[in-house]
Amino acid sequence: MDLLDFDACSTLWMKSWDDWGRFSTSPEYAAALMPDAGNFMDINFGIKVMAGHDLIVFGKGIPEVDAKDGITRA
């Protein structure tokens, strides 16, 4: 993964790539972003997108590591 060329980034949560596609191409998104975009992004270069998947686990992942997991009562 490349280092970012700037000091900050936005985090957006979507349920699917289709949701991202509808959001990122919507007139409302463009109207909110574009007036100020030149102050913080290189419009000619585009944006970088990193996708991930969160896995939320409750309970002990590795029982021998600790007596409690901090989420559930032991």
From TrEMBL:
Residues 2-42 form the EthD domain. One of its GO terms (molecular function) is oxidoreductase activity. SUPFAM superfamilies: Dimeric alpha+beta barrel. It comes from the Eukaryota. InterPro entries: Dimeric_a/b-barrel, EthD_dom. Belongs to the tpcK family. This is EthD domain-containing protein.
